[in-house]
Design goal:
The protein is an all-beta fold. The protein has strands spanning 8-12, 25-32, 37-43, 51-57, 68-70. It is 0% helix and 40% strand. The protein has a five-stranded antiparallel beta sheet with strand order 4-3-2-1-5, with no helix packed on it. Strand 3 (37-43) and strand 4 form a beta hairpin.
Amino acid sequence: MKPTVGRIVHFYGKNVAPVVGEGPFAAVVTLVRDDMRVDLGVFAPYASNVLIATDVPFKEAPTSGGDYWTWPPRE
């Protein structure tokens, strides 16, 4: 699946909200750079505003370390 502007994805990042861990955090795609890299508006718990993450790479499955985005799991 290709990312498009406005889609909701999961963002993982160490420096977003250290108190609550690396994520996942809800994020909205704001710019598609290519099929694997996007810019995001990230909604982190306890943040007073939307955080901006630019040129974020895609990972197929969550792993530890680094900033990246994934598709939310389907249930």
